[in-house]
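Continuing the batch. This is chain 6 of the set; chains 1 through 5 are on the previous pages. Same settings as before, nothing changed between runs. Recording input and output for traceability.
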Amino acid sequence: MSEYAALVALDWADKKHAVCLFAETTGQREQRSLNHTPAALQEWALGLRQRFPAAPIAVGLEQSRGPLIYALLKYDFFVLYPINPKTLARYREAFSPAKGKDDPADADYLLDLLQHHRERLRPWRPDDQKTRTLQLLVEQRRRLVNDATRTTNRLTALLKSYFPQVLDWFSDLRRLIVCDFLDRWPTLDAVQRARPATVHKFLRAHHSVHRLTNERRLQEIKTAIPLTNDPAVLNSSQLIVKVLTAQLRTTILALRELDRHLEALCLTHEDYELFAALPGSGTVYAARLTAAMGSDRTRWRTVDDLLRFSGVAPVIERSGKQHWIRWRYFCPRFFRQSFVEYAEQSIQHSFWARAYYSMQRAKGKGHYASVRALAFKWIRVIWKCWQTRTPYNEVIYLERLRKTGSPLLKWVADHQQ
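Output for chain 6:
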């Protein structure tokens, strides 16, 4: 307790938090509830500072992100210890097998973990402001991409039921030209009644200038046969199409705006060039990897810590004489996705990544298992570049593989003969 004047545990709730406090001076535990309002949180925090002015205060809570931790960040005398909700749940079950949950009791259990097992916990050190902004933006961008995918899937299903020709005329529905086309001509009959010159002018105005593609579209519009003439289907579908295209247009424009902000922020981030040098990273993946690695280079003492945290490293389980390897279930999903999705992208741009993926497939592994194995390799490379602040260089890396006698290069040589 010498490093902290007090230990505090907060069990978060939407409107009211359960608080349990242990003070070294009294040796007693104190429990209370705390309203989740800016005024109540400030009054409570400043009261603790006045009561314990000599040393920092340790705070255990289940969040590593969210409104509560954002509210506590402005008080520099708090040292935050995020505790995994699964850890708390397992600890609770050890003393309450019936799995009864109660907020004051959970705050008491959180304080137990903080008081007796603090050496196994790591205090949360926030990244710098640019990195935290980048983290929030790339996660919100991914949510917008998911929104666009959901809307596009609904739009695809609807068009298949009454106007399937649009799916042949436009290969990707996630474009403004599709939204504007369906707003103007929501049915086959509507576009067939339009003059070909009008449709051609529309296509060119939306930067669709490939002559053969536009000629094919105009010819197919002229000769197309409607899938259905049922007024009930056509009338209802037109209304829903307008709703879906409005949603899709808003999401597309939001993504463009977000990408502009991301690009501007990335250009000012000191670590961005490290990740922009990775083959095939582009602005989006470079931003996601910059956000994932963060600015605190002491967060992961070894690359194995990063591999386990990311969820890319598998879990080895042993029981008696048996042991098996399984997928790591609990990890930050977006964090893992950033590395796995980049690894898949790198196959098209990196010689050794493409060769390693092919070698894994030749061993009989499926596509996703091969990509995860490649992500495992990429994390080791990225961690070293990040630690040494050295941009990745494919030529240097291939030369290192040659000098160390990598079996990957031997496999490539054997399969090129």
